[in-house]
Amino acid sequence: MTCGAMGSFYVMKALVFYWLLMVGGVNGIGANWGTQASHPLPPNTVVQMLKDDGITQVKLFDAEEGTMNALTNSGIEVMVGIPNDMLAMLATSTKAAEQWVSENASSYVNDGVNIRYVAVGNEPFLKTFNESFLYTTLPALQNIQGALTNAGLSSRVKVTVPLNADVYQSASDRPSDGDFRSDIHDLMLNITQFLSDNGAPFTVNIYPFISLYDNPNFPVDYAFFDGTSSPVVDGSTTYTNMFDANFDTLIWTLKKYGFGNLPVIVGEIGWPTDGDMNANLQFAQKFNQGFMNHISTGQGTPMRPGPINAYLFSLIDEDEKSIQPGNFERHWGLYTFDGLPKYQLNLGTSNGGLVRAKNVRYLDKKWCVFKPSASLDDANVAPSVSYACENADCTSLGYKTSCGNLEARGNISYAFNSYYQINDQNDVACGFNNLATITNVDPSTSTCKFEIMIETDSGFSWRSSLVTDKGILLVVYFSFLSFMFLIISF
Ligand SMILES: *[C@@H]1O[C@H](CO)[C@@H](O)[C@H](O)[C@H]1NC(C)=O
Ligand SMILES: *[C@@H]1O[C@H](CO)[C@@H](O)[C@H](O)[C@H]1NC(C)=O
Ligand SMILES: *[C@@H]1O[C@H](CO)[C@@H](O)[C@H](O)[C@H]1NC(C)=O
Ligand SMILES: *[C@@H]1O[C@H](CO)[C@@H](O)[C@H](O)[C@H]1NC(C)=O
């Protein structure tokens, strides 16, 4: 054997070794799992999806029992959430904090849920919250930390506060001029100090999509990762994508106050697929794949070289999210509500792509549509459509959205069908003053899907039905009457 052959053998071995490092050694990718949906997939199905996709970390917005139980012994790292409306109570009562930790952390850890973080609040300093959580977030954080310590969990479970990237800014747009937002400057310093003292990470949500949505002059290519005609030059560093610049604005801010090494987690990052002219499959694929490729190199950002710990936003669409921020809110998922991947996405994990949910059970193949014989001039059309849209989901109807090209009758049908499906195809929910009818012919077009809902665990969604349908209230009322009648006749 010649020296040359020996040499290339070792080179080969080294290459294989580095390849294994690349494949198995990337920090792992996380996903946000929210449940504000009328027809959520069963938690066990979702956990299987996470496993199939090789997603190793999940971020929750609460601690729902079904979700937590499904994560038992999955090995998946969990960031469990505390909703903002609990902050006031947790801030004022150490007892409440102890109870929260006992019920929602200790017991699940003992059962084998791999809880690693507690997210105290969710973007509590957003301007839209009107300072509601300004005085409760830090005390709640302190009380939860205290309770974790008392429970003996403080070395394995870290606290954090997922914050919107608007808690810091740069007047010049250059990352090196970064600082905390002036109205919460001292509060942010105290929170950062507290996180640092407790070995806890700073969590930030970064959204180039929102920058584009809020500012029509925002350079579109700067939102993505393929280079830009409008780079930001900061000293010797040139930023060609908004993510790096935004992330580094935070790093500069932290550094300015002596926290340059504080761990940072990207709590949410993603791109929606519908509900706005810039929310579509092509842009979402381009952004998320660009981001995955960007972090898979492990190079990090100019100011923070190394692996980036991030949670994609989000795993699955949620049709009951508030649309106050915009119609796109219900379309952030990598998957549609029923667990179908929306586009190809290579997460850099062993299997390469997104795997569809298994054993999903759909309702019958039928749709509620505007009656062919009904007239567009009928005075009941407008109020019926408004009613359907208020109580169901019409966020795919609008300028340059997936169903934006329907003609008037299609629009009406879309609204009626959404309401009918959300109410589990109950006949009563396809009335609309006799303007609607049920059909077996799929009204979908090439871009616009008329959904069929999935079966939910409870079989029938009383919760949403009760608040959305007067007809069903009557059904409940009459069932109650006949029940009473039965009791009386016995
Ligand atoms: C535990 O979490 C659930 C879900 O977020 C919440 O409803 C419940 O109040 C929490 N328990 C305590 C004791 O705070
Ligand atoms: C915030 O304050 C503004 C102005 O006072 C008000 O119009 C808005 O409804 C408030 N929003 C919330 C969420 O309280
Ligand atoms: C920050 O902490 C200091 C020292 O404990 C305290 O005096 C100050 O009031 C705090 N400020 C805010 C806004 O929390
Ligand atoms: C369909 O509905 C959308 C959203 O409500 C509206 O903007 C559009 O004008 C409607 N199109 C027609 C043809 O009525």
From TrEMBL:
<keyword id="KW-0336">GPI-anchor</keyword>
<dbReference type="InterPro" id="IPR012946">
    <property type="entry name" value="X8"/>
</dbReference>
<dbReference type="GO" id="GO:0042973">
    <property type="term" value="F:glucan endo-1,3-beta-D-glucosidase activity"/>
</dbReference>
<keyword id="KW-1003">Cell membrane</keyword>
<keyword id="KW-0378">Hydrolase</keyword>
<dbReference type="InterPro" id="IPR017853">
    <property type="entry name" value="GH"/>
</dbReference>
<feature type="signal peptide">
    <location>
        <begin position="1"/>
        <end position="28"/>
    </location>
</feature>
<keyword id="KW-0732">Signal</keyword>
<keyword id="KW-1015">Disulfide bond</keyword>
<keyword id="KW-0326">Glycosidase</keyword>
<keyword id="KW-0611">Plant defense</keyword>
<feature type="domain" description="X8">
    <location>
        <begin position="366"/>
        <end position="450"/>
    </location>
</feature>
<keyword id="KW-0812">Transmembrane</keyword>
<feature type="transmembrane region" description="Helical">
    <location>
        <begin position="471"/>
        <end position="488"/>
    </location>
</feature>
<keyword id="KW-0449">Lipoprotein</keyword>
<comment type="similarity">
    <text>Belongs to the glycosyl hydrolase 17 family.</text>
</comment>
<dbReference type="Pfam" id="PF07983">
    <property type="entry name" value="X8"/>
</dbReference>
<protein>
    <recommendedName>
        <fullName>glucan endo-1,3-beta-D-glucosidase</fullName>
        <ecNumber>3.2.1.39</ecNumber>
    </recommendedName>
</protein>
<dbReference type="GO" id="GO:0005886">
    <property type="term" value="C:plasma membrane"/>
</dbReference>
<keyword id="KW-0325">Glycoprotein</keyword>
<keyword id="KW-0472">Membrane</keyword>
<dbReference type="InterPro" id="IPR044965">
    <property type="entry name" value="Glyco_hydro_17_plant"/>
</dbReference>
<dbReference type="GO" id="GO:0005975">
    <property type="term" value="P:carbohydrate metabolic process"/>
</dbReference>
<keyword id="KW-1133">Transmembrane helix</keyword>
<dbReference type="GO" id="GO:0098552">
    <property type="term" value="C:side of membrane"/>
</dbReference>
<dbReference type="GO" id="GO:0006952">
    <property type="term" value="P:defense response"/>
</dbReference>
<dbReference type="Pfam" id="PF00332">
    <property type="entry name" value="Glyco_hydro_17"/>
</dbReference>
<dbReference type="InterPro" id="IPR000490">
    <property type="entry name" value="Glyco_hydro_17"/>
</dbReference>
